[in-house]
Amino acid sequence: MSGLVRFLVACALALVAVEAVAGEQSWELHLPGYSHHFSSPQQPGRHWADLHDGLGLQRTTRNDDTVVRFTAGFMRDSFDNQGLYAGGAIGVRLLRGDVEVDVSAAPMLLYRTTRFDDAHGPAPLKLIPVVMPLLSFEHRASGIGANLTVLPGGNFGKDLQFPGLVFIQLTYRLR
Length: 175
What we know:
Strand content: over 45%
Oligomer: single chain
CATH architecture: Beta Barrel
CATH topology: Porin
CATH class: Mainly Beta
Shape: globular
Order of helices and strands: HEEEEEEEEEEE
Distance between the termini: 40 Å
Helix content: under 10%
Largest sheet: 8 strands, antiparallel, barrel
């Protein structure tokens, strides 16, 4: 196993251990999200997809000072293709009350394309492990919230040129 995959497995085990101290639990829907890319595609005539339609499910456990999330779903990626995601997050509460805010580290596995479709057909899907910073907030009375993250851009390997972006995904707590 590569070092990053071992790290992601260790993070998943830590999330399960922290969640074992049960607190308030809820389920949230992941709704479409929106991104802003920091650079343009290097291919002329191509544009990043900024609207990321999709749907996912998130299980949140809130303890006194920590928040643990498990999440999975599908969404349109920056290359305008559907992909999958799964992962978790462990964080600390910054604000509790009518509006809750927490900050987390989110180890995730993304199954998505890493390039635009071309004349040879659709771009292949690849499994990409990442750890993202995550700022989450929710208006408790309405159940409406969002997850905000920033992904750096750059060359992450032979076939992975990734655009830097800031991304916000809406959530809705199920009652």
